[in-house]
Amino acid sequence: MTTEPVVDLVAAVRGGDQDAWNRLVERFAPLVGSVCAKFSLDPHDRQDVAAGVWLRLLEHLHTLREPAALPGWIATTARNECLALLRARRRTFPTDFDRDLPDDLPEAGTDLIAELRRQALREAWAGLSERCRELLGMLFGDPPVPYADVAARLGVQIGTIGPTRIRCLATLRQQPALASWGGA
Is 0.70 topped by the overall pTM? Predict the structure, then answer.
């Protein structure tokens, strides 16, 4: 099996060839996955990192000076996305809150806290655009709808789903109703 030269693949994508984009993503997805594996990310975080990498590539594809260096660019971008995700996680998760509490104490008010969180999430959800609610509803439903089906239902290209998901989740986290929960 012959492999299409990276330079030709990039040129086809720059020319608007959706199949070339799909081949590019399929070809370099294992590279992104191997970078994520080095950071021991869980599958959801790996998907977020991959979506970020493909979004950055879409943003910068036309400005790449050396298309043959694309694999290195993808590896570096994946590494940067992993580090950004880990930095963000450190900022958003409080630590040492239960340091002085014995392990055998039941947590007081857990039902109330859970209900308050659900209410905050419902309010934040209502603040999203209908398009974001529809997309996230399909992706996080039980069972989740495959990307190909999501693309068909929404009438979008499959390569835009991950980046759109990231933007919708960021918008959700920034909703005022979730501010007191740290955007969680």
Answer: no
